[in-house]
Request: fold
Amino acid sequence: MLALLPLIHKTFLSVPLLKEFGYTKTQLFICIALYRRGSLTMSQIAQHISSSKEQATRAVAPLVEDGLAQRFISEENRTHIHVQLTEKGRQLIHSRLDSFGDAFDRKLTQSLTPEEREQLYDSVETVIRFLEKLN
Reply:
């Protein structure tokens, strides 16, 4: 299973993708998490990126300053600060994910047969389902 990590990193987090995004890898992970989940507390963000709340706060700050994300206080517990993408942030992530998806699809089409692509998609769905059960 650990052999997957460097392969996934190399395949999905190429330097051109990060340069096109314009932010750090950590900030990309945060934006994708917020895109998928809506809003997260700083503790949840820290857990998602496997870092401290302080590091998460430092990573979120430029996203807020640039208008991609916004912080707000939880109505349920005023000690929790939530972060969510702004419309500008959602549009940016949506467009980047679309362009990345298109590039990845081209790479798959060039490198794999239709049968291999179907096997890959099925395998990825299975791995995701199992990993979600673990979390």
Summary: Helices lie at 4-12, 15-21, 25-37, 42-48, 53-65, 87-111, 114-134. Strands lie at 39-41, 69-73, 81-85.
